[in-house]
Design brief:
Length: 236
């Protein structure tokens, strides 16, 4: 059905800014994967993917080691994952995932970004009927046969398999994450990305007057060092 990606990540901009955003997301993935599956990439599939991404973007080894320690419970610096839900201009839904060691600072920043855009931060759960959490895998085509791969993914619980020139995007229910992951391992295929994403169930339009305010909101959130992922339901 042609899934519209709701995730905004690493918009083009100044090189340092983009690099910092990539590092933040990559290191968060390392810590999260380690927390859920341990610090050994040979047995932790998600950690292997996260470390591959770090190497791809030349993330310094010291940063990676600290992220692994954080995931194992050491050197945590009090970090915790937190989410914020709100509405931008014209009621566009915006879901923010952050990792912070200072919740007071982070919520104050996020609230100010929404207020300055003419939007507002809402209560937890206010967007529960707007976004659905899905398992999403980006798998290199490599030498995979499209028909065979599609059947294998459907068998593992995937709902959509969309190919482009280089990758398959595999989308399934949140509960199917483990079975799809296991099937990819059986096929000796390592995805470029794997995780749970928030997919919009409905979309909103913006007029020309409101668009700059919305873009400023997203840009401000992206610039915040505590923000890891941003999702929205703007019609694209």
């Amino acid at each position: 059905m042609g899934r519209k990606s709701a995730k905004i990540a690493n918009k083009k901009g100044a090189a340092d800014k983009a690099r910092g955003q990539v590092f933040t997301k990559a290191l968060h993935d390392v810590a999260t994967a380690t927390k859920s599956g341990g610090g050994d990439p040979s047995t932790n599939f998600l950690l292997k993917i996260a470390l591959d991404r770090c190497r791809k973007f030349n993330v310094p080894k010291d940063n990676i080691d600290r992220a692994i320690k954080r995931g194992l419970g050491g050197d945590s610096e009090g970090y915790e994952d937190i989410t914020y839900e709100g509405y931008g201009p014209n009621g566009v839904a915006v879901f923010v995932e952050a990792s912070t060691n200072n919740i007071v600072r982070t919520v104050a920043n996020v609230r100010s970004f929404f207020n300055k855009s003419g939007g507002s931060l809402g209560k937890d759960g206010c967007l529960q009927f707007i976004f659905d959490r899905k398992s999403v895998f980006i798998v290199p085509k490599a030498q995979l046969d499209e028909d065979d791969f599609t059947l294998e993914m459907i068998d593992a619980g995937a709902e959509e398999i969309e190919p482009d020139d280089e990758f398959f995007e595999v989308v399934g229910p949140m509960e199917a994450f483990g079975s799809i992951q296991n099937k990819l391992q059986e096929l000796n295929t390592s995805p470029e990305e794997a995780g749970l994403e928030r997919i919009p169930l409905s979309f909103k339009d913006l007029d020309e007057e409101s668009m700059p305010k919305f873009e400023k909101l997203i840009e401000s959130l992206e610039d915040d060092e505590d923000v890891v992922n941003i999702y929205h339901n703007l019609e694209e």
